[in-house]
Design a protein that fits this description.
Radius of gyration: 22 Å
Oligomer: single chain
Number of domains: 2
Shape: elongated
Strand order of the largest sheet: 8-7-6-9-10-11-12
Strand content: 5-15%
CATH topology of the largest domain: Rossmann fold
Number of helices: 15
CATH class of the largest domain: Alpha Beta
CATH superfamily of the largest domain: NAD(P)-binding Rossmann-like Domain
Largest sheet: 7 strands, parallel
Amino acid sequence: MTRKIVVQIQQNELSAFLEPDVVEKLKQVGELVLNPYDRPFTPTELMSHLGNASACISTWGSLPITRDMLDSAPKLELVAHMAGSVKHIVAAEAFDRGITVLSGGHAIAESVAESIIALILAVGHRVKLVDESMRSGVSWKSIAMEADELRGKTVGFVALGMVAQEVIRLMRPFHVRFIAYDPYMKREKAAELGVELLPLHDVLKRAQVISLHLPMIPETDHMIGRDELRLIQDGCLLINTSRGSVIDEQALIEELRTNRIFAALDVFEQEPLPLNSELRRLPNVLVRPHIAGVNPSSRKRIGRSLVEDIYRYWHGESVQHGVSKVRLALMT
């Protein structure tokens, strides 16, 4: 019997993830049931397709595979989510039923890490401030003289997941010192990464650049609050590309008003960031609309790597980008 692979990605977005040679490789393991619409499937449409499907491919905006859908999909063996977190795309019962779940988080991590390096260098060299000064006709020299190098700085991480580890790899040529807070990281692993593990408050006090990599779970809600922000040293850059809720945003705004620290933010407590947010006007903060991990290159990288994993799965090889039920609990 022919193996069926349901592809939820809508028609007008398919080529952004699956290049022609990748589609051909996918066809080698099964018959593709493509979404013919420039919209997501409806629940009824998806359920009807899953009835005899062996695999389902999804991405941002795709319908979640609920418990009811799992009940109607007795042949389903594999779910490949061509995005990051799978927490809201597949019911937890999928893991109990032995369904293999894949995520494109690894490919996104590479883009986010490169984006973090860009933010650090842009803030350190005062790119935004000098550009605005040049455009306004004001002398740029005083601002430019305040610029500083990344080289030799102490960089602190709050959590050491995939993105943080990729940032460390990219940052090594700058000869920086790495410190981190992560209660789940084994010291042996941290030593391999070249990172000194410290209590949270020590990381906040000692780092000259701080990058947050926390999941959005109850324990991390406003984990960086008013007291924690006051521990950060003058001139420090605080970067958040994880989730907006991990910082008390109002407390951060109050701290930024003092011009004591800098911030670079890709995520916010309310998204999209309200037009009247003071974060849009403060000169010592860079703001971006939650785009650190999404670009044409990362989407194609996600598609290629997960199709490789699908191919491995049906050729009896170990997948490289599987998600465990334990890891699911830490996803946002």
